[in-house]
Specification:
The chain is an alpha/beta fold and 263 residues long. It has helices at residues 13-19, 45-56, 75-94, 113-125, 149-159, 174-179, 187-195, 227-237, 248-262, and strands at residues 4-7, 24-27, 59-63, 99-103, 133-136, 168-173, 200-202, 205-206, 217-218, 241-243. It has an 8-stranded parallel beta barrel, surrounded by 4 helices. A two-stranded antiparallel ribbon has the order 8-9. The radius of gyration is 17 Å and the shape is globular.
Length: 263
């Protein structure tokens, strides 16, 4: 059985998973738009959350803040991004998380993408990675590191020489792939041909059309992403699944039911 869950509030991810009838929970460790250090709000702290999640049979996944961009050539963004990423990895390890998800980032329109790939390599080389770092494909940006498959290929080739490469995984988001201009049918095979692994699926419909570049999620059946393609991605990857769809507990619970019926 594929383990599924949703993205919810951070203070009690176990309760969030249980409210969805789910086997996993994804959450932020603080404000996703802030550079502040991670915060564990669970009563009893990190050790209590780790033990209680294990006892409840709930897998935990931590999503890194959106503000981070380790590919950036801007020191005021790249340097704090590396610091925040390390803090997030350390905090995620303390709660027994299965992985930390981070967006691929970008360089500006007039910059060489190769610089962004090298900045990623330097960042990965310098990290203490105690839990898998899962790089997520993104929806928009002409100079994104992980929007198109050819760029993901370049990123993976660059990271392959890092001593930490065995701790780098991939998170495939169906909304981002659709909005980024990648067909969902056949996508798992194409991604595996590049990365050799898919560690987590973000299963989301898209409020916008194919190749729109817009990162706006929708509940299943209410957007423009190919429903058969979403199901195929989930089924063929065999990876754990997180829905990041609107509607809170009830909206995500309905989307998890939708997936289970089809997968």
């Amino acid at each position: 059985m594929i383990v599924m869950g949703g993205h919810g509030e951070s203070d009690d991810p176990i309760a969030e998973a249980q409210a969805r009838g789910a086997g996993l929970a994804q959450f932020f460790l603080g404000d996703p738009q802030s550079w502040k250090a991670p915060r564990i709000g669970y009563p009893g702290g990190a050790e209590a959350l780790k033990g209680d999640a294990e006892a409840a049979g709930i897998d935990l996944y931590v999503h890194a803040p959106y503000v981070m961009n380790v590919a950036s050539t801007n020191n005021r963004i790249r340097i704090p991004s590396r610091k925040t990423l390390q803090q997030t990895l350390t905090a995620a390890a303390s709660v027994g998380a299965k992985g930390v998800i981070v967006h691929g980032g970008h360089v500006t329109a007039d910059e060489d993408p190769a610089v962004g790939f090298e900045n990623w390599r330097k960042a990965v080389d310098g990290l203490d990675i105690a839990v898998p770092l899962l790089i997520e494909n993104t929806a928009g940006g002409a100079n994104a590191m992980a929007r198109k498959l050819d760029r993901i290929d370049q990123l993976w080739t660059t990271l392959a020489g890092s001593p930490n490469f065995d701790m780098i995984g991939f998170c495939l988001d169906t909304c981002h792939a659709h909005a980024g201009g990648e067909e969902l049918v056949g996508l798992v095979e194409r991604v595996l041909g590049i990365t050799g692994r898919i560690d987590l699926i973000h299963a989301n419909d898209s409020r916008d059309g194919f190749d729109s570049g817009a990162d706006r999620h929708a509940n299943f059946g209410e957007g423009f992403a190919d429903p058969d393609g979403i199901v195929e991605v989930v089924r063929l990857s065999g990876a754990p699944v997180v829905v990041e769809t609107p509607g809170g507990v009830e909206g995500q619970k309905a989307d998890l039911d939708w997936l289970r019926e089809r997968v």
